[in-house]
Amino acid sequence: MFGLLLVCYVLMSADRYHISILAPDIRAALGLSLPQMGALTTLFTLGIGIAGLPAGSLIARYSRKAVLLAGIVLFSAATYLFTVATSLLGMVVFVVMQDIGMSFLATGMFTLAASYFANNRVAAVGMVNVCFGIGSFVGPWAIGDIRGSSGNWETPPLVFAACGIALAILV
Length: 171
Description:
Blueprint: H1 2-15, H2 18-30, H3 34-42, H4 44-61, H5 64-84, H6 88-116, H7 121-150, H8 155-170
């Protein structure tokens, strides 16, 4: 299960690059100004910041697996919903939802790694961080490749959302 969760973490990390890679297309599709698009591309920190403490509280009350799964499903659903948003406000709401899910997943991954692998905590947490790096490297490439072959900006997030839901089912 930890291996599948690491794959989810790679996906989550890669998913963070959709808005910046697809910004010209999104901006044109919704008629956003440059400042609006700039705000949208950096907004992910708001959702992560909002959800950090609640994620820890949920893990204290419920199982790590439940919080991890909720995070995967939430960020995947929000990634899908982002593609059907018709306004800046809709996109903002879905980006914040996506990042709340990412926060649940990240918090769950670090607590899972530190507790289940007590004898090798440093290595386990290091593996989580390596997966973030892999997603950060692979994400922009995959997003650009999917965008280039599909011809529209919606396809990369839809592919990532479908992969997230499939991984949640497998976990």
